[in-house]
Amino acid sequence: MNEDELIKALAVVHIEYILVHPFREGNGRLSRLLATIMALQAEQPILDFTYMDENKKAYFAAIQTGLDNDGAMQEMFRQVLHESQQNAAD
């Protein structure tokens, strides 16, 4: 799986999980765990979600538009993955 395929898969699964599991408690933690497992299976480092935490408005907007267009969530995960790779290299 190349990086673009992984990012697409992370974005789609994340959006679908959040929208299908609409509970206020637990869905964020579980969706991040699922994304991290997917990244590890693709031989990537443990994901650092600081970027999403620091950009909550953009994150929520990416979820809201996600069913019609997952591009914004893909960009969120691209940033998360790149920061995670950089952290692992340090």
Quick recap of the structure?
By secondary structure, this protein is mainly alpha-helical.
Structural class: mainly alpha
Following the backbone from N to C, one meets helices and strands in this order, namely HHHHH
How does the overall form come out from the CA principal axes? globular
Please state roughly what percent of the residues sit in beta strands, choosing from under 5%, 5-15%, 15-25%, 25-35%, 35-45% or over 45%: under 5%
Unreliable sequence segments: none
Largest sheet features: none
Helix fraction bin = over 70%
- Count the strands? 0
* Structure annotation, total helices: 5
C-alpha termini separation: 24 Å
How many separate structural domains?
1
Give me the Rg, rounded: 12 Å
Overall average pLDDT: 93
What does this protein look like?
The structure is a single chain. The protein has 90 residues and is mainly α. The chain has one domain. 74% of the residues lie in helices and 0% in strands. The protein has five helices and no strands. It has helices spanning 3-20, 27-41, 50-54, 56-65, 71-89. Helix 1 (3-20) packs across helix 5 (71-89) and helix 4 (56-65) crosses helix 5. The radius of gyration is 12 Å and the shape is globular. It starts with a helix and ends with a helix.
Notable features of this structure?
90 residues; mainly alpha
